[in-house]
Write a structure and sequence with these properties.
The protein is mainly beta. The protein has five domains: 5-176, Immunoglobulin-like, CATH 2.60.40.1510; 182-272, Sandwich (Immunoglobulin-like); 278-508, Metal-dependent hydrolases (TIM Barrel, Alpha-Beta Barrel), CATH 3.20.20.140; 511-586 and 715-756, Immunoglobulins (Immunoglobulin-like, Sandwich); 592-706. It is built from five helices and 55 strands. It has a 15-stranded mixed β-sheet that branches. Strands 42, 44, 45, 46, 48, 49, 50 and 51 form an eight-stranded antiparallel β-sheet that branches. α1 packs parallel to α2. The radius of gyration is 27 Å and the shape is globular. The mean pLDDT is 96.
Length: 756
């Protein structure tokens, strides 16, 4: 189904040479049958010229939505991928240019073709072959993600005025998943012994699309599970959710999915008598009505049925949300919201430029609240323009009295907390998304004295909330998730959880993280931030993530508890922006050297860093090599006994590789990247990071050793953390696992009380 055009906010041509667009001609697309994601194909557009003809220097253009990450169309090399040919029955010549950001949002992608050396009469035909294979090209390379209806818009400028008018035909075809490449098993994270729970199982293709091209899998469990079948047939299904499963004993459950070619383990499920539960959400992404793909309904259903989320929200750019879509979206969240099963939260993204505050996500407890836009940039209906809030300060003022919370986030327009912040509304900062990792946003908040929680979301535009792979274009990281510690799955519980900052963010992994602080003398824990509101307090001996606590103690005991899906590489105990301690579940390291590249150019849109490079060894050979966070399968990679070569980017996150070496005395490693060449003795690389800094925003290479084998996925440790004499001591964790994933906890804010 094509997204209904009247729900999409955009501003189009206002002048046309004809009363009806259909008088300017017609266009057909063939074939319109399904195409596999990332496959090569050939599409043919035939434009039949209308009553005005097509003048010399007249033109047409073909538009696609922003997320499209297929090949860059080109008209110069018939033997290369994505060759486009343009011919006509009238014998004209054509000049064309493809631009990734060449037209109005959300239709940024454009092929613009101009007539030269002639003109065309009514009834003559222009044929555009996308992926013309006649000269040796493999065809048109498709996008990496599935879409119900990949839509092409065809617009003409028949009088060479510079004004383009869209022809009325709707051109589209489905993009479908490829064969199964990996399997996934998803469980809840914390549950009560003896209570029924669920298991989600799916197969994904090489680009992360849930696929129905899978077969029978075997299921096995680390604990006895009532109702768990030995096998499960995924044939013809993109995902299956098994319900009514029960475990009668406390412990940590992991379920393994096995096929002839693949084995995957679920996230850990901690079963105990404690009724407290963890719920997972991705509360930030867009659909085809704004700047993403597919419909808002498909977006919400993907979150629930294919990503196995408990909570989601649609966050369209407010300057693109028209009145019809806002009404439609609120009707959808109301219809799909099912307490105890799935929460759909109404909201939008306030998308002011960074100069006036930057992006904020807005979430409402109830439907049909007003949209406070930063502008009407893509809306022609100006009837409610007086409700706009043109800077973040105005936004927070307008939201007073609403049942609402907000996140500050980093996307195209990063949030500038120095411009505006209201802790009564803006409860958290988003420090990971498909755009990258942004711990600096939390550092900003802490340096300003704000007491905020930490979340992570996808900010996805490819219709996959909760399982948001970056694809092959703008985005550089796998989308994030937030774990909410709540008694039950209701909007009221969610709002209370956000208010108390009882949540943590991850880079998409579902691991269990806990931080508990204990005090030698009774401390005072506040229900809300006493710097902002009058609030209740209680005398306690312990506190957890998100708490605000006043103590007489000069230090506190911190207990860190982690259960992961991949072996634990390190746990950083942070106090503010500084690392207080680095915890590792091992003491000895071996012949494995990890090479990490990380960081961004700067805070804005063009933050990506290319790390294409190579390494070579002298006096050592590579026994084994594995890549880390290599999200783009198209990025070239090769290796032999003494060398490796790769393509990679980071956007604030990190990637890299592990080398298991056979070394001799005096062995060296030479590393070449766009930032130069460096040679290091391998004997100098130890358990602590060897860091090479390259400016920018934490742009660096790190090298260090790991154990040859590390199977530790459960870790607990207690240490002492000093409390500052004045101001807050924000204590939080960064957990890094060997597969490249991370978790970031909301700080516990501790401050001293002094008795004279």
């Amino acid at each position: 189904m094509i997204v209904p055009r009247h729900l999409v906010g955009y501003v189009d041509t206002v002048a046309s040479p004809a009363a009806e667009p259909g008088l300017l001609g017609s266009v057909t697309l063939s074939p319109d049958s399904p195409v596999e994601a990332r496959a090569h194909t050939t599409l043919t557009l035939r434009y039949t010229v209308g009553q005005h003809g097509l003048d010399d220097r007249g033109a047409f253009k073909i538009l696609m939505r922003f997320p499209m990450d297929g090949g860059v169309w080109q008209l110069t090399d018939p033997a290369a991928d994505n060759f486009v040919s343009v011919t006509s029955t009238g014998g004209c010549q054509f000049q064309g240019l493809f631009e990734s950001f060449g037209d109005a949002r959300p239709w940024f992608k454009v092929l613009r073709v101009r007539v030269v050396g002639g003109c065309l009469r009514r009834g003559e035909v222009v044929t555009v072959t996308l992926g013309d294979t006649s000269g040796g090209s493999a065809g048109l390379r498709m996008q990496t993600f599935c879409e119900d209806a990949l839509e092409l818009r065809f617009l003409v400028d028949v009088c060479a005025t510079g004004h383009f008018v869209e022809l009325p035909q709707r051109l589209s075809f489905p993009v479908v998943p490829g064969p199964a490449h990996r399997h996934c098993a998803v469980l809840p994270t914390r549950w009560a012994v003896g209570e029924p729970f669920w298991l989600g199982v799916k197969a994904e293709d090489a680009w992360g699309n849930p696929t129905d091209q899978a077969g029978v899998v075997r299921l096995s469990a680390s604990l006895p599970v009532e109702g768990l079948p030995e096998t499960l047939d995924l044939s013809g299904q993109r995902a299956v959710t098994l319900t009514g499963l029960i475990v009668r004993q406390p412990g940590t459950l992991r379920i393994t999915v096995t096929t002839a070619d693949d084995q995957a383990s679920s996230n850990p499920l901690i079963l105990s008598a404690d009724a407290a539960r963890s719920y997972w959400g991705d509360l930030h992404g867009q659909s085809g009505e704004t700047v993403g793909i597919n419909s808002a309904r498909r977006y919400l259903e993907f979150a629930r049925d294919l990503a196995f989320l408990d909570i989601t929200s649609h966050q369209g750019n407010a300057f693109q949300i028209n009145a019809g879509f806002w009404q439609h979206l609120n009707e959808l969240t109301a219809a799909l919201n099912a307490p105890g099963r799935f929460l759909a939260i109404p909201g939008y993204e306030w998308s002011g430029n960074t100069a006036v505050g930057g992006d904020r996500n807005i979430y409402f407890r109830h439907e049909h609240r007003p949209v406070r836009r930063s502008s009407h940039a893509l809306l022609t209906d100006r009837s409610d323009i007086d409700t706009d809030c043109t800077d973040a300060g105005m936004l927070f003022e307008a939201l007073q009295g609403e049942a609402v919370f907000a996140y500050a986030h980093v996307g195209g327009r990063y949030a500038d907390l120095t411009v505006a912040h209201d802790g009564r509304i803006e409860r958290s900062v988003e420090i990971h998304s498909a755009w990258g990792t942004f711990t600096w946003l939390l550092h900003d908040a802490l340096s300003l004295g704000h007491r905020v929680g930490v979340v992570a979301n996808s900010d996805g535009h490819k219709g996959r909330p909760g399982a948001s792979y970056p694809g092959a274009a703008t985005f550089g990281a796998y989308g994030g998730l937030t774990c909410f510690r709540m008694a039950d799955l209701t909007r009221d519980a969610l709002f209370d959880c956000i208010q108390r900052r009882r949540h943590y963010g991850t880079t998409g992994t579902r691991i269990d993280v806990d931080q508990q602080l204990t005090f030698a003398t009774p401390a005072r824990r506040f229900h809300d931030d006493p710097a902002l509101v009058d609030t209740d307090s209680a005398r306690v001996h312990a506190a957890t993530m998100g708490d605000i606590v006043q103590t007489e103690d000069a230090s506190v005991q911190l207990t860190v508890s982690v259960k992961t899906t991949s072996p634990i590489e390190r746990i950083e105990v942070r106090v503010g922006a500084q690392t207080h301690a680095t915890l590792r579940p091992y003491r000895a390291v071996g012949s494995r050297i990890r090479v990490i590249w990380q960081g961004a150019k700067y805070r804005g849109r063009g933050r990506s860093v290319r790390w294409d490079g190579d390494l070579s060894l002298s006096g050592a050979t590579i026994a084994r090599i594995e890549r880390i966070n290599a999200w783009n399968p198209d990025h070239a990679f090769s290796s032999d006994a003494t060398t490796a070569r790769w393509q990679a980017i980071t956007t604030g996150n990190f990637g890299g590789l592990d080398l298991w070496l056979t070394e001799t005395a005096g062995a060296t490693l030479t590393l070449t990247t766009p930032f130069g060449t460096v040679t290091l003795p391998t004997a100098d690389i130890g358990i602590e990071d060897t860091r090479l800094d390259y400016g920018g925003l934490d742009r660096a290479i790190r090298l260090y050793r790991l154990p040859e084998d590390n199977d530790v996925q459960t870790f607990e440790h207690t240490l002492s953390v000093p409390v500052a004499e004045a101001g807050d001591t924000p204590i939080w964790l960064i957990v890094t696992t060997e597969d490249g994933h991370q978790a970031f906890t909301s700080p516990t804010y501790v401050f001293r009380s002094h008795n004279d």
